[in-house]
Design goal:
Layout: E1 3-5, H1 18-27, H2 31-45, H3 52-61, E2 64-68, H4 79-85, E3 90-94, E4 99-103, E5 106-109, E6 120-124
Parallel strand pairs: 1-5
Antiparallel strand pairs: 2-6, 3-4, 3-6, 4-5
Amino acid sequence: MGFVFYNPNPSEKFVGDCVIRGISKVEREEWESTYLAIAVKGLFMHDMPSSNAVWGAYLQTKGYKRHAIPNTCPDCYSVSNFAEEHQFGRFLLATGTHVVAVVNGDYYDAWDSGKEIPAYYWVKEE
């Protein structure tokens, strides 16, 4: 359990599309369809697809709820800690500058972001 390399970008690019990569993983969608859906959401909201407001609104339409990470140790609770504590389910973690998918205790990313500090997460509440 832990870091799993994941880069569904068809051109294998890995800069600036972490939101698309993360959502495509938790939603089990193709990178292209995720990108297009979020871009359309951004168009209707008159904002960029990478805006927290846009991809957050997209997740809400998919049944996700946003939760804060408890602030008991703001500098020591990491993505890898979250993954270890969440062995079941699909989550999307947001740091100040990055988004990471966590699925059944593993975190999926194009680089090992396990030491990043998450601020909040999204989970589909079914």
